[in-house]
Amino acid sequence: MKLNLNYQNVKDSYLFSTIAKKVSAYSETHPDKKVIRLGIGDVTLPLCPAVIDALHAATEEMGKQESFHGYGPEQGYDFLRDAIRTYYAGHGVTLDADEIFVSDGAKSDVGNILDLFATDNTVLVPDPVYPVYVDTNIMAGRKILYMNANAENGFLPMPDSTVDAEIIYLCSPNNPTGAVYDRQQLAAWVAYAEEKGAVILFDAAYEAFITDPALPRSIFEIKGAEDCAIEFCSFSKTAGFTGTRCGYTVVPKKLTAGGMSLNKMWLRRQTTKFNGVPYIVQRGAAAVFTPEGQRQITENIGYYRENARAIAACLDELGIWYTGGKNSPYLWLRCPNGMASWDFFDFLLERAHVVGTPGAGFGENGEGFFRLTAFGDRDATREAIERIKRVLS
Ligand code: PLP
User: Fold this and answer.
1) pLDDT in tens, 293-312
2) What atom in ligand 1 is closest to the CA of residue 107?
């Protein structure tokens, strides 16, 4: 037996385990202090009533002979694919239902899509970055190039025509920086991908947080993207499905290379290695697109948006530079007084008993920056803001 030795090159991820250890050590020695966590990327609000009703109804169906569902179509039931198609049409993107593939979440698809590409492609990722893009490619042994995201470019790196790459990762609204590409910037990326014969893997997991109508929610709002891009999306942050698991990937039929259709390849891959998302879960996801579901998730997203607005107002008041918070649940701030990420983490934990995520955990360019999330409970977020103001004023 020979192992995939590339796994030796994947660095252990100590970020969240180190945070957890530091927080529990602090809590043990300071049992009287209430620690507030604004570091996690998980949601806190429950599933909305429209989703719960649909899950209940689908569960009932599964218990009756006449409405029981066994194996479903690997690429998702038509009722959900049609609902997603209609959702895209709402922001001006025309898709065919067979360009949409339902999955158990964006993380799986972001990793699995790499089955379609040879290992000798060069990959371009931003630094700082959602670590999954990096680790999945290290596991496959691909060469990775990093592009600098920094305060100068607003954490939105732009293409450099002197750099050759075939697989490009873009995430907008971005995790961890909250930065959002505008149409012109995405058009420049599409032009670069076309020039290089590259594919853009566009992660739109946070699209629902965009409020500014001028900002694109999908890369397919950009002309020509259907020739060079694949888009990943998720119900996790949009509708609280982090534990329920459902997402979708759009692979346009126009996307081809060397005479092969990536849409057909992905269908073949999914029908070979995946047996679909549970019927019950897909019914729950479809309920997100009903008028009632849309109203309810908009309310939930509004709750997180208000948290983001309040954190942003606090940073504005303190004169701290940051990205995100406006069309994103993440705020990415420059650590005050030139502090390093982990020093600021310790400072905030010890002085304010507030937990965030050190930017250094997302890449070299994250050093000196810090991520706060808007996914917390409202009262706890308000309390954290007051404490942050107290220790930094
Ligand atoms: N993409 C990004 C940028 C994320 O931040 C996350 C989760 O935090 C995911 C994908 C994973 O989403 P899912 O829960 O659908 O697997």
Assistant:
1) 999 999 999 999 999 999 99
2) 16
